[in-house]
Design a protein that fits this description.
Chain lengths: 124, 316
């Protein structure tokens, strides 16, 4: 099935990306992406270094928002719209979609100690 | 024709819950439902049945999503216009229309303007409640309130009386909490309790709000966290009808004296609960689209607390 072949290709690309981002060469915090697809934030849980900018992209045909009460709130994101937030303070930031509150995710911000970024649950 | 057979099999019978569900999921020419004492009975196809009823009627339209232009329906304004043409063609002119929210897709001024321009062609007073898509402007809800909520309380709730029926428009799309469902909030519930004070138990009540007040499917957020509190306030009334939108498909259930009904969208269908990975717009073949969009016509026969809801697709 073509889907399978595509899936393999995507997996290989993701693996390559993961390897690249794990390289110590990245001195500054690598910016990271969260995709909104099928009413789900992916990855749902993301661990980043302080100073990282996370960009959400809405790939659904329905608008969504990204809201972390007391921290940040995007405007409504139409299809392909993006929202970015730079996390400077370590901590756990739970967020949800203000329009479809069953959609939830979290960003865990670690103090910069030199270790590489890790993505939890980035690949299934 | 299977549609007629299906319908006739219910003539003059009490109908079991299972059969009700059967009819509910059948999408075709509108069926006239009459509810007497909590028992739904199908009276026949729209044409014949409409001629028999001489009650007071009003219309429900929902989820126009003006501005939506994605593959599930590249022209949501066009299908709204078709729906309004259906309204104008109804034999018995309804007393008014209610719109159960998601008038627009993105709360843009032009979307509100376009919707107004089409809906006003029906020549009917229209009572609105907002959907979550109607309050995502820069200052959330500003545009909606300016247009439709000037005489309403809070985020846009209100009530009015018509032909002895008490109508209540509720807002359950504001102040949504992480992980939660629709939300009415304490202020609105207090207002509702007050609004119902002094109403006799025999007053027929129609409550309308965007998100279903009962839990249709929690996983997709199809319900209202404090909906049960509102329903508790309505418990003493002999005839309560709850009309919602949001889920872009017809689902009906009867519980005691309460009839719950969700309307089709005039823009695009959404999958049945759990039938897809997400509740996103469902793409159907272009020639099938108008069979899953539509309007609902509600008739009251005064004196016997009878209610009939006729769902009419844009195309039979």
């Amino acid at each position: 099935m073509t889907n399978f072949a595509f899936g393999r290709g995507a997996f290989a690309a993701a693996l390559l990306l993961a390897l690249v981002s794990a390289l110590p060469a990245a001195a500054r915090a690598a910016d990271l992406e969260v995709k909104i697809d099928n009413f789900t934030f992916g990855p749902q849980k993301l661990t980043v270094k302080a100073g990282t900018t996370v960009t959400w992209t809405n790939e659904d045909d329905i608008p969504h928002t990204v809201v972390s009460t007391g921290h940040f709130r995007s405007k409504a994101l139409d299809t392909d719209d993006k929202y970015s937030f730079t996390f400077t303070t370590p901590g756990t930031y739970e967020y949800f979609c203000g329009l479809h509150p069953h959609m939830q995710g979290s960003i865990i911000v670690k103090a910069v100690t030199g270790e590489a970024d890790t993505k939890d649950g980035a690949t299934p | 024709m299977s549609a007629q057979d299906h319908d006739r099999s219910h003539d003059h019978d009490g109908v079991s819950r299972r059969k009700v569900l059967e009819c509910m999921t059948w999408a075709g020419t509108g069926v006239l439902w009459t509810v007497a004492g909590g028992v739904p009975t199908s009276l026949g196809l729209v044409g014949e049945a409409m001629a028999q009823t001489s009650g007071f009627t009003f219309l429900q339209i929902s989820d126009s999503h003006v501005g939506f232009d994605k593959p599930a329906n590249p022209n949501a304004l066009g299908t709204l216009e078709e729906a309004i043409k259906k309204v104008k063609a109804l034999q018995a002119k309804p007393a008014f229309m209610i719109h159960t929210g998601d008038i627009t897709h993105l709360s843009k001024v032009k979307e509100f303007d376009d919707a107004q321009q089409i809906i006003s062609q029906a020549g009917l007073d229209t009572h609105y409640v907002p959907g979550e898509h109607d309050i995502i402007d820069e200052e959330p809800g500003h545009e909606y309130k300016e247009r439709y909520g000037k005489n309403a309380k809070g985020a846009g709730w209100y009530s009015f009386d018509q032909n002895g029926v008490h109508f209540i428009g509720l807002v359950n799309v504001v102040g949504l909490k992480a992980g939660g469902l629709g939300n009415l909030g304490d202020e609105q519930l207090t207002w509702l309790a007050d609004d119902l004070k002094g109403k006799s138990d025999s007053t027929p009540i129609v409550v309308f709000a965007h998100i279903p007040l009962w839990t249709v499917y929690e996983t997709w957020g199809w319900g209202t966290d404090d909906g049960a509190k509102a329903l508790a306030l309505l418990k003493r009334f002999g005839s309560v009808t709850v009309l919602n939108g949001h889920i872009h498909q017809i689902i009906q259930k009867v519980e005691g004296n309460v009839t719950f009904h969700t309307a089709r969208s005039t823009a695009f269908p959404q999958p049945a609960p759990g039938a897809a990975p997400s509740p996103g717009p469902m793409k159907v073949d272009a020639d099938k689209l108008r069979g899953v969009l539509g309007i609902a016509d509600v008739t009251f026969k005064m004196g016997n607390a009878r209610l009939a809801i006729v769902d009419t697709p844009l195309q039979g």
